[in-house]
Amino acid sequence: MIQTVRNLAVHFRTTLNNLKSNRQVSFVTIATIAIAFSILGLFLVVFVNLDTFLTTWSREVQLVVYLEDAISGKERESLERVIAGNPEVESVAFVSRETAWENFKSTFSAKSEFLKSLEINPLPASFNVQFKQTRDRVEKIRQFAETLRKSPGVESLEYGEKWIGRFEKFMIFLKVFLLAIGGLLGLGLIFIISNTIKLSLYSRQDEIELMLMVGATHGYIKTPFLLEGMAQALIGALISVGVIKFVHLHMKLQFQDTLEAIARGGGFLFVSFSQVLFLLLASAAVGWAGSYLSINQFLNSIQKR
């Protein structure tokens, strides 16, 4: 146990010395990592807020079943029983043609003199169906709408399926885009860290060869360089979290009222603690991978001599 602690202390000292001796290169590497993770993090903030926006609007979606003018009383009652019998339905409200017309005129007549002079009522009667709040609420509305679409007396249905469908497709695209850009940035950072560690390795080449001659294990030699790559990546990721938080606070202060109006009372959100933790763990993994590639290649080249 004591020997393990001593070894760790030696590894940490070696890591700090490596960072100091290659200070300029380490600074450039850390800055590059910070910029890359800042870009990824800002995209993640956008995704989180758009996803919250979609969830908020989805909660307010209701199914409107427009009825044919010639629908009979029995057909209407039968349709109402079918709707009310759905266990996912919270409430059903019947809106007559007259009520719909009066509501429409009270909303828009002040903006149009034409409506005041209109003698006919072009609006159909309808059922406004409110569904219970569940995670797959929109999907249940979509399925039930397809069931009702061919029912006798139903003229059409409306629940905003077009814009919801387009928004959902956009969110899927954004998720794939985030994964793709995250993968590309990760590969690029592995390459950058790998080259940085190579400089540290070549600056200590004689020392490493001597350590191998006296019987030092590969694990003992690798550890300081693996820690160096992980340290650079973690420092860069921490800086990126600070940058993302600064941008988030700036956006919140400048556009909070507008954002709340768009999001129906929801604020402009920051990424969750678990997502920040994921960014830090991902950065550590990238740093480890870049260092591991370099040190493995370096030790293999020495052994082949």
How much is the radius of gyration in Å? 31 Å
As residue ranges, the low-confidence spans are: none
- Number of strand elements: 4
Mean pLDDT metric: 77
Order of helices and strands: HHEHEHHEHEHHHH
Q: Could you give the distance between the termini?
A: 36 Å
Number of helices: 10
For the biggest sheet, the summary is:
4 strands, antiparallel
Give me the secondary-structure category.
alpha+beta
β content, as a range? 5-15%
| Strand order, largest beta sheet | 2-3-1-4
Helix content: over 70%
How many structural domains in the coordinates?
2
Cα shape: elongated
Tell me what the structure shows.
The chain is α+β, with helices and mostly antiparallel strands. It has 2 domains: 195 residues, no CATH class; 98 residues, Alpha-Beta Plaits (2-Layer Sandwich), CATH 3.30.70. It has a 4-stranded antiparallel sheet. Helix 2 runs antiparallel to helix 7. The model has no long low-confidence stretch (mean pLDDT 77).
